[in-house]
Design brief:
With 439 residues, the chain is of the alpha/beta class. It contains 16 helices and 20 strands. Helix 9 packs across helix 10 and helix 13 packs across helix 14. The radius of gyration is 22 Å and the shape is globular. It folds into 3 domains: 76 residues, NAD(P)-binding Rossmann-like Domain (Rossmann fold); 202 residues, UDP-N-acetylmuramoyl-L-alanine:D-glutamate ligase (3-Layer(aba) Sandwich); 144 residues, Mur ligase, C-terminal domain (Protein-Tyrosine Phosphatase, Chain A), CATH 3.90.190.
């Protein structure tokens, strides 16, 4: 929502908004940065809705009981969903839409980085802030750009991916997340039909490969010759990685084979719009990453601390796997978000953690993050931990994360990576920083 607000403000619309986190006499960094862009922010009490308001845009987290919605209906002001607005914006530009259940934000950022480096000055609307833009004092998840191209995330979690009609569609992977596999396959099939020029598919992933009908625009890892774009020779040293794309050497300041796949997808897309693979390698060598995607806070007392947005089973497993080459032991902490999503993915979380964790690794959880609303609290993170412990995994539950570090200290020995994972909770970054500070 903040990305859409910034983009509209950047094309001379008058924008204001509210959020549950915007409270009177309370400091909120997102609010400060939005208002610095000229976007007025209000508490979520209806006060921002006036007779001058032409349109209300709501996220999927907004219920009909929210005061802004009630007031808008009373005043007969049109209300649309976030995805409908993004679809309208996408129609105004040549759009590259990135879909898949993991890696969308990173791949969008990489495409934006490459096209910017190539002088194409693209726009971007993303779910995460780019470090390069954050350093400029911005939220970092939106930019208008003077060029022809706009790069966006196509979100499958709410089904909105079917609304976009991009010139280039990208399908990274398909794993159970928010919806069942058969539902996801239907959504991505529609996404493919709606793409007008190139549909770029990860042929390394068995489910996404099923939606490929043109081998010329596939990309794959370690399957040289099977696709137009292929990555090989992956190596990791510390938290950096190196590999080759079509025999061109690449290096990233990010670890993990999942990031090699993201870079491969971005390079394929850039090449299809006229950017050479060599230039993509130059651009990604300086890529600084995005907000809370394997952000390395540093090393203290022989312990590395990493902050990551991972929140579904596949993402959590990939984040842990990326830390393992660096350390003798990974101590991973995870705060699930949402009681419905946690219940839906319970067995998948248990299976992924069981598979990825080495005998010396550990998984810790605190209680599920509750963002408000009408959720039924019929599951606990402890339910996951109990099953993992029964399977022989070193698994620990600390209900209140405020006492997490005290409980965890005896387990944080030199040579350990402490990986902090979770999403949606706006207090996670501050919490991770506090753990790092007190370590």
């Amino acid at each position: 929502m903040s990305a859409l607000a910034q983009y509209l403000q950047g094309v001379d619309k008058k924008v204001s908004g509210s959020d549950r986190q915007f409270q009177k006499n309370a400091v909120n960094e997102t609010q400060i940065k939005l208002e610095a862009e000229g976007i007025k922010c209000f508490p979520q009490d209806g006060s921002g809705i006036t007779a001058q308001t032409d349109l209300i845009v709501v996220s999927t987290a907004i219920e009909d009981t929210v005061l802004e919605v009630i007031k808008a209906k009373e005043m007969n002001i049109p209300i649309i969903r976030r995805s409908a607005l993004l679809a309208m914006i996408a129609e105004s530009k040549k759009t590259i839409a990135v879909g898949g259940t993991s890696g969308k934000s990173t791949t969008v950022a990489m495409i934006y980085e490459i096209l910017s480096y190539a002088g194409l000055d693209p726009g971007i609307i993303s779910g995460a802030g780019l470090t390069r833009l954050i350093k400029q004092g911005k939220i970092g998840n939106a930019a208008v750009g003077s060029g022809d191209w706009l790069v966006i995330e196509a979100d499958e979690s709410d089904g909105s991916i079917v609304q976009y009609k991009p010139e280039i569609g990208v399908l990274l992977n398909i794993d159970k997340d928010h919806q069942e596999i058969h539902q996801l396959l239907d959504l991505f099939e529609t996404f493919k039909r709606n793409t007008s020029s190139y549909f770029v598919v990860n042929a390394s992933h068995p489910l996404s490969k099923n939606l490929s009908s043109n081998d010329n625009w596939n990309f794959s890892t370690d399957i040289k010759g099977a696709s137009a774009y292929h990555a090989t020779n992956y190596k990791q040293e510390g938290f950096s990685s190196a590999f080759k794309i079509n025999d061109v050497a690449f290096s990233l300041q990010s670890p993990g084979k999942h990031n090699m796949e993201n870079a491969l997808a971005a390079t394929a897309v850039a090449n299809l719009v006229g950017v050479s693979i060599d230039k993509s390698a130059e651009a990604l060598h300086n890529y600084e990453g995005i907000y809370r995607r394997h952000q390395i806070l540093g090393s203290k007392k022989g312990i590395w601390v990493v902050d990551d947005y991972a929140h579904n089973p596949a993402k959590c497993a990939a984040a842990i796997a990326a830390c393992q080459p660096v350390s003798q032991k990974v101590v991973a902490w995870f705060q699930p978000h949402g009681y419905g999503p946690t219940k839906f993915l319970k067995n998948d979380f248990i299976d992924e953690f069981t598979k990825v964790l080495r005998p010396e690794d550990e998984i810790w959880m605190s209680e599920i993050y509750y963002a408000g609303g009408t959720a039924v609290k019929e599951i606990s993170a402890k339910d996951l931990i109990d099953v993992l412990a029964e399977r022989g995994v070193r698994a620990y539950f600390v209900e209140d994360r405020r006492v997490l570090l005290n409980e965890m200290r005896p387990h944080l020995t030199p040579g350990t990576v402490l990986l902090m994972m979770g999403a949606r909770d706006p207090g996670l970054e501050a919490f991770t920083q506090s753990v790092w500070g007190e370590l």
